[in-house]
Amino acid sequence: MLQMPIITVLDGFTLNPGDLDWQNLQKLGKVTLYDRTPPEEIIARSQDAQILVVNKVKLTAELLEQLPNLQCICVSATGYNNVDIAAANARNIVVCNVIGYSTTAVAQHVFAMILALTNKVQLHHQSVQEGDWTNCSDFSYSLSTIPELADQTMGIYGLGRIGQKVADLALAFGMKVIAHHKHPVRDAKEGVRFVDFTTLLQESDVLTLHAPLTAQNQGIINLSNLKLMKPTAILVNTGRGDLIQEEDLKEALQTNLLAAAALDVLSTEPPAKDHVLLGIKNCLLTPHIAWASQPARQRLMNDLVDNVVAFLAGQPTNVVTQRK
Is 269 an annotated catalytic residue? Predict the structure, then answer.
């Protein structure tokens, strides 16, 4: 076991913007905390580190070659595509991630976005504040038709932990639930009907994306597939931005191929000022916050510390590399 290991956190702000405590990590070694680290400072800040904690900082093969003391990389997220895993394997650097911490938070955000589009609570609140209710001839009015989710069809692309939780909430709303998933037999769920991808697109009133990004499904939500969806349908993405061809989605929204979209992720984050989906009236955007409830971030912090403890004990957990 390393005695007082040197631990460096390169981009800790998104995990802990100030409402959590690093003390349990700080008990494990000599810890240096950085809110953010620009690419040109990674080597200088990481030179002596035996354990690196990263969220989105990219650790390439070239960078890893210049960090001879590094023994473990703890990714404070589930996705680890920011780390060159092959290079870490070659250098016998253990890479660990954290899974399952944000399931409840993401599922909650999915329905927050759906309800924002269907019930338009904020829009009605604004209308009341502007005097529309005061000046109304009737006791009640609505700014648009308000649908009910009950008996609508929720389509889920990817029925892993988060997809299963979304299914639970959809069933509680009285929705019919269909899913397209790699492992329908293994992950069979009461109340969920597994379908092929085309059927998923055609039957969904709400389609929500929860599959991991792969070379095979990158840009799978494209214009030809969007044309298969109902013009009244809503598309929700809290998964990965690159699942969607964003130019195609813009066209679909502006030509009424699709009623609305609600996205918490984009292909480039943060987006450029001229991003194609900014300013589209029927496209609701949130800044990648579905994972970030305070309880979810606390679970992430706890599991991150557990990963460091396990590595220091010689029994690393949540390992995504192959140890020699």
Answer: yes
